[in-house]
Amino acid sequence: MTTYIVRRILISLPIILVITVIVFLLANMMPGDAVMAMISSDSPMEADLIKLRQGQLGLDLPLYEQYGRWLGNLLKGSLGYSFQTGEPVGQMILTRIPATLELMGLSLLISVILGVFLGTISAMKQYSPMDYGLTLFGFTGISIPDFFLGMILIFIFALKLGWFPTSGMVTAGTEFSWSDNLRHLFLPALALALVRTSVFMRYTRASVLEVINEDYVRTARAKGMTERVVTVRHILRNALIPVITVIGINLTVLFAGSVIIETIFQWPGIGMMFINAIALRDSPVIMGYVLISAFVVLLANLVTDVTYSFADPRIRYE
Fold first, then answer.
1. Which of 111, 277, 85 is nearest to 190 (CA)?
2. Which pLDDT does position 36 carry in this prediction?
3. Which of 111, 138, 283, 300 is a plausible cystine mate for 198, CB 3.0–4.6 Å?
4. In degrees to the nearest 10, what's the CA dihedral of 123, 124, 130, 136?
5. Is the pLDDT of residue 205 over 80?
């Protein structure tokens, strides 16, 4: 297992290098630059001052020199400094990523538990009214975009019913408490989770239907095992392999989807930081975010592969 993990990490290094080139080129292809984004119509800046500021930020250098500087800093463990605030990009990400991980963690937990549970029930009661109802729920959930679902939840549960706040992590002017934090977290996490719940439910249903009539399942029932034991130990254990793959893929989708949800709910994570950086043409912050996203994709794929061996002991990595 250790050899396999080390090999995967070594294979990922050239992939990350290619990603850095692509990220750098895309960030520099955006129209405008950071200096022009700093200028407001109320306080215009002279052309000489604009050139001076561009020189201070290194924006007047050829692209290959800018990339060399950025890559050199990256190899030293630095993601550079924000053009707008001068704050280290790594520190900006470290400050905001706990909020994003909290949002992703709760939404993933909700979606996996609900998706696997409802998908199993749907398969075990195939062609029943409950199966049709859950299938309708699945198609509806997949069809609604995250941002639209988030606005619906705000309208119903925040504006109309007043059960939950509309934005932020905590109530302004109060000390931090987990109960208050969870009240703010619930709606954005639910908006992210419901779409993923539909995906996990559909894949779980399909996987369970593939194994439910296998010989080892009939043998387990013939031995007198209870239906709960048969479902958990024999059906779900073998049906989870494709579901784990989907969960691994959706880790990255959650990371990307949190950008819009964080903006709608004003959740102070790295997604909202990324949107602000795009508006201000803050290239180091944009490149730092995309690079972290690429790392999350590679890590999610590795974790997914390793998880296979725990779900199915027959799988071994050398």
1. 111
2. 61
3. 138
4. 0
5. yes
